[in-house]
Structure formats: C-alpha cells, structure tokens
Amino acid sequence: MPRAMFEYTKTVLKKVSFNAELFCKELEKAVNRLLPYEVEELVIWLKQYTANKPELHMCMAVVKK
Known about the structure:
By secondary structure, this protein is mostly helical. It has one domain (about 1-65). Helix content is about 70%, strand content about 0%. Helix 1 (about 1-15) packs antiparallel against helix 2.
C-alpha cells in the first residue's frame, strides 16, 4: 500500500504542476504522509521533474526541511 501512495503523490504533483503554489502545498502534504525512504525517492524524482520547470524550484525548500 505505501508504494501506491508514492505513485499517487507523483500523479497529483504532475497534475498541479501548472501552479507553483498548489504544487508546494501538495508537496508539503506528501512529505508529511510518505515514509522517510519514500521522501528520499521523491526528492530524486523532483530534481528530474523540475529540471526544466524553474517556476517550481522554490518548492524544493519544502523537502529540505
């Protein structure tokens, strides 16, 4: 089940990536819900996903807390 939550989180983040504010809110929710190792995986995915989306780079601060 936890794996399903990780995949769901990525799906939600992709869908809200048009709005940086929504993206940050959903990312914060994800960090609070996911297991620590999943958060580490999410950071790796985020770096790749936001590489060409500079408007989302500010949201990386959420996972660096």
